[in-house]
Amino acid sequence: MAAGQLNVFRAPRRDCDAEFTEKRSRFIGSVRIVLDADEAAETIKRFPELYPKANHHCWGYRIGGGAPLEHCSDAGEPAGTAGRPILGTIKRHELTNTLIVVTRYFGGIKLGVRGLIDAYKAAAELAVEQAGAVEMEFHNALRLRCGYDYSKTLSSTLRKWGFSEERVNIEYGADVVMKLEVPLSMRAELEAPLAEMAQRSFLTELSWNEEPLVRERWR
User: Fold this and answer.
1) Does residue 89 lie within any of the structural domains?
2) 6: number of Cβ within 10 Å
3) Impact N-terminal domain spans which residues (predicted)?
4) 200: domain range?
5) What is the 3 state secondary structure string of 59-91?
6) Phi and psi at residue 41, in whole multiples of 5°?
7) How many domains does the chain divide into?
8) Are the beta carbons of 163 and 107 closer than 8 angstroms?
9) Are residues 32 and 117 in the same domain?
10) CA-CA distance, 91 to 87, in Å (whole number)?
11) How far apart are CA 77 and CA 56, in angstroms?
12) What's the pLDDT at 39?
């Protein structure tokens, strides 16, 4: 997880593309969750491939907590008419780890400075509205292995910790393997009891995947 990130943050519920037409110009607002500036840059680079005949791919993003990293670009439109309205939409909705790209196909009628500002803002707002917004939290994947004689006790313990049956994937083979995703805000309180289970050989495998996963907050 990048430095300065918050464990819990407000972000779009899903990636979304929303479209409308203003004086024959076609605007496509695209919302994406991004976790750092490199991911944002790579995502922005893909839009000319997605819409190769478009005239502009304007964008804004806001990443991280505390003092968020904020950048925007007019991408060839008159200064201040596209990037700032897009970034302003992200900030108004108090979103972070969020990129919005607005793609424009020019329809032959000039919109003027005020018209461009309004159109880019409207495209960004429409995309955010259709994506929805929720609290997200970083998670780590956890893999546990135990014998059949301990599996019921382990399942019961996980339920007491708040992991319902639908949050635990169970595989039955020579042993029982349980896979789950643990919110980072919860991980510290689980590490000690899980380590004790492993030390006492109740668990034959206890492994964390350190790659952060973004999931909707549930606790």
Assistant:
1) yes
2) 17
3) 23-127
4) 137-216
5) EEEEECCCCCEEEEECCCCCCCCCHHHHHHHHH
6) -60, -45
7) 2
8) no
9) yes
10) 6
11) 7
12) 96
Q: 205 has which bridge partners?
A: 145
User: 């996963």: which residue's tokens?
Assistant: 213
Between CA 175 and CA 107 the distance in angstroms is 63
Claim to verify: residue 66 and residue 83 sit in the same structural domain: yes
pTM of the model: 0.84
Residue reference for tokens 């003092």: 67
Q: Which residues of the chain have pLDDT under 70?
A: 1-5, 219
Dihedral of CA atoms 171, 146, 218, 94 in degrees, nearest 10, equals -90
Backbone phi, psi, residue 114, to 5°: -60, -40
CB-based contacts of 83, cutoff 8 Å, min separation 6:
58, 59, 60, 72, 73, 74, 75
pLDDT digits (tens, 9 = 90+) for 153-162: 999 999 999 9
Query: Which two tokens mark 16?
Result: 């979304």
E strand spans, the chain? 8-12, 16-22, 25-33, 56-63, 69-73, 98-105, 133-146, 168-172, 176-183, 203-216
Pair 89, 104 in one domain: yes
* Alpha-carbon gap, residue 91 to 79, rounded angstroms: 19
Long-range residue pairs from 21-25, CB within 8 A, at least 24 positions apart, any chain:
21/107, 22/111, 22/115, 22/119, 22/122, 23/107, 23/109, 23/111, 23/115, 24/107, 24/108, 24/109, 25/104, 25/105, 25/106, 25/107, 25/109, 25/111, 25/119
